Amino acid sequence: MPELPEVETIARGLDKRVAGDTIESVWIGSRKQPLKSPAGVIAATLEGRRIVRVHRAGKHIVFDLEGEAQSKRGGRAARRKTRQAASLQNIGEGRTAQWIVHLGMTGRMVVCEPADEIAKHTHLIAKLASGRELRFIDPRMFGKLSVHDGGFDPGGVEPLEVTEEKFVELFRGRKTPIKSALLNQKLLRGVGNIYADESLFRAGIRPRRRAAAITRQQFGKLHGAVREVLREAITLGGSSISDYVDADGEEGFFQLQHRVYAREGEPCLVCGSAIRRVVLAGRSSHFCAKCQK
DNA sequence: ATACCGACCTGTCAGC
DNA sequence: TGCTGACAGGTCGGTA
């Protein structure tokens, strides 16, 4: 579901609502797919820790945690076992840790009251000292949960921070189609299918153009377009398609601004010709053949 | 290095 | 009222 603007919106909402709160206990469902770290390690790392702040890195939600973790699970032996598992990864021993959440396509992280109905596909519930609950829900289970000892770095550079010089350097000379390069999280982190298509439209570049065939001037335009599209989307709370909502259950409105994404066959808002859809790297790619070269 | 494909999952919607 | 197939915000690993 979520690309940079959606994750940014969710992280801001979560920071507003749970920063300063303490995780008292954690329930984890039996499905293993969403877990990148073992369930015992996740629980042992989260329980007893205070949420310092919630922010975003690429498409990941990052919870900065502090305080001594104190697992209440089982007896002393069980506790020692989870501590050992955690220390194998150097997690859970120090005063600080990080909880990393990737929402995949359909993941949601919501703040609930304990009495709220538990949604289908709920994989984790963290009970907070304030009495509320943080719940992770993910029907398709493409999301990922993990814990870190700090300094989490997903690789790639932040599109909203990268300079034009650095941006050009990332892509220059690559033979890959520019859209594939934009989606490569090891280069630029946070751009997904919607915002890649929208950025390329605004920059007047076709998705299949080889990065190596793009001029310096066009790269400058693309750099500006990516940042403009992401900023506008964040301002509008992201794009709500089917089921996306932020931490407060609010929908975003950027989908109303889409100029090409999911507009196959509809007239281009600039020149009127029909928007085309092709499959590139297994993803639907939308563009105007007249406005984009 | 690069590019294409299927796999990972469930849900929804269009078409027959 | 079904059934089937295509498709969906993302990533990863295998294979040419």
What does the secondary structure layout of this molecule look like, with pairings?
Layout: H1 4-18, E1 23-28, H2 39-46, E2 50-57, E3 60-66, H3 76-88, E4 96-102, E5 108-112, E6 122-128, E7 133-137, E8 144-148, H4 164-171, H5 178-183, H6 193-203, H7 216-235, E9 276-280, E10 283-287
Antiparallel strand pairs: 1-6, 2-3, 3-4, 4-8, 5-7, 6-7, 9-10
The structure holds a DNA duplex (16 and 16 nucleotides).
Describe the 3D structure:
This protein is of the alpha+beta class and 293 residues long. It folds into two domains: 4-148, MutM-like, N-terminal (N-terminal domain of MutM-like DNA repair proteins, Alpha-Beta Barrel); 164-287, Orthogonal Bundle (Helicase, Ruva Protein, domain 3), CATH 1.10.8.50. The protein is built from seven helices and ten strands. It has helices at 4-18, 39-46, 76-88, 164-171, 178-183, 193-203, 216-235, and strands at residues 23-28, 50-57, 60-66, 96-102, 108-112, 122-128, 133-137, 144-148, 276-280, 283-287. The strands form three sheets. A four-stranded antiparallel β-sheet has the order 1-6-7-5, with helices on one face. α1 (4-18) packs parallel to α7, α2 packs across α3 and α6 (193-203) packs across α7. The radius of gyration is 21 Å and the shape is elongated. The protein starts with a helix and ends in a 6-residue tail after the last strand. The model has no long low-confidence stretch (mean pLDDT 91). The structure holds a DNA duplex (16 and 16 nucleotides).
